[in-house]
Amino acid sequence: MKKILSLILLTLGLTLSAQESVSDSLPKCQGLFSIADSVQVRFSPGNLQYQPSTHLWRFAPSQTETLGWSDKSSSPRYKGWIDLFGWGTGMNPTNYSENAADYSFIDWGRYCALPTQGGKLWRTMTMDEWNYLLSKRKHARRLYAIAYVNNQYGLLLLPDGWQCPKGVYVKPGPKEDSANWYTDEKWAKLEAAGAVFLPAEGKRMGTALQGSPHSCHYWTATPSIKKSSEALYLLLDPYFPQGRSALKSTGFSVRLVQEM
Between the CA atoms of 121, 220, 66 and 101, what dihedral angle is there, to the nearest 10 degrees? Predict the structure, then answer.
């Protein structure tokens, strides 16, 4: 019965209750991050994931978890979880059409995620907000680093007013440093202090997974002003995390935030 109701509501552009749509646990990411003047957010506890066979959404069980994408995941009957999505495919998560007209942005947070404390919804950050976080907030250049957590490569984000826990060291900046290799034990200390980790997992083109283990891409809510077939995403490159443009059909990771 729940499955039938889920299909009806998805057709209407609605969602089920929190218990029936996404993991109902409160976020583990307790750090606050400035993304504009007088605007702070809290990150979701992991990347967004979707199970086609049940039409259910959840956050990854941990900040370091990635899944990738295989050709079977494009089937509505696929029983596993997927986490690489075309731009704004909140109502059509398995869409991999190359037709730009099939991608009218629908914020994943509007249709997939939970209201949490205070009834505030999760949402997707814009490119301007990512730029503010990484380059304009106070001490911005000291508050991110390239890191490995239990051999998983990604971007480490440190909250406003960061205080590093005892027994752990963070070397900030866009270059790899052996100091930023963390065991599960050390990562637990960083996470408890408010740190956020964006894991890299490549990208999906059609139904094929591409990119290296160091390929880190996250969709923003911002369309390209130059090409209607493209939208902006956050790229972690060897020099500086920055905005780039890609076809809306490309499958990238999604990480949501909640305004505090």
Answer: 100
Using CA atoms, how far apart are residues 92 and 165, in angstroms rounded to an integer? 42
Q: Please count the other Cβ atoms lying within 10 Å of the Cβ belonging to residue 145.
A: 20
Nearest residue to 149 via CA among 192, 194, 193, 196? 196
**170/179 Cα distance (integer angstroms):** 7
C-alpha closest to that of 228 among 244, 251, 242, 245? 245
Q: Which of 120, 122, 61, 50 is nearest to 86 (CA)?
A: 50
Instruction: Give the tens place of pLDDT for each residue, 128-151.
Output: 999 999 999 999 999 999 999 999
Residue with more model confidence, 11 or 26: 26
* Phi/psi-derived region of residue 79, left when phi > 0, alpha when psi is between -120 and 50, beta in every other case: alpha
Q: For residue range 49-104, what is the model confidence (pLDDT) as tens digits?
A: 999 999 999 999 999 999 986 666 667 788 889 999 999 988 889 888 888 889 98
Q: How many residues does the chain have?
A: 260
